[in-house]
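Quick entry, no commentary yet.
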Amino acid sequence: METDTAVEPREHLEQLRAELAERGWPAHIVGTSRHVALRVCNPDDGGLNVDIGSRDGRYHWPQGRVIDATDIAEAVAAITHVLRGVSG
């Protein structure tokens, strides 16, 4: 995903949080200033969640793999697809 790599991870994750919120997916920033993540929850089952990271202007799964997306909408689609798949 091409983004401005000068954007701080917290700000980058906040952009993702806002996009998810527009679609009814709860998410909130967790962690410390050294390791910040966005915890995204399945709105149908709050126990199903994933922590998304940000590094070098890209979003990452918890294992460090880059989320394959060219824009924020594709990142949201990938994240919500995974969390929906877990629940059913």
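second:
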Amino acid sequence: MYADSTADCIGACEAPMLLVKEKFGRLEKGQVLKVETDKPAVVRDVEDWAGNLGFSIEEQEKVAGVTSIWIRKTKEWSEEIEPTMQTAEQQR
């Protein structure tokens, strides 16, 4: 699937959700962000974040230990208006 931007959260990505939110915030309504990660906790965080805010996960696949998630920006969004959400990594 085509993506307008990619958030590479593979390996030693220190703050994956910050990177995802930064990249997502730059998109226009209707555009797609591809998130790539090799960490199951990041997959859960991205799924929860997108679902809680009503964004559409268009596609998801796992190949050789790397999960790719395509999220469509279906409405206007910015970090300033997002409610605080505890990530799976913070819950540990």
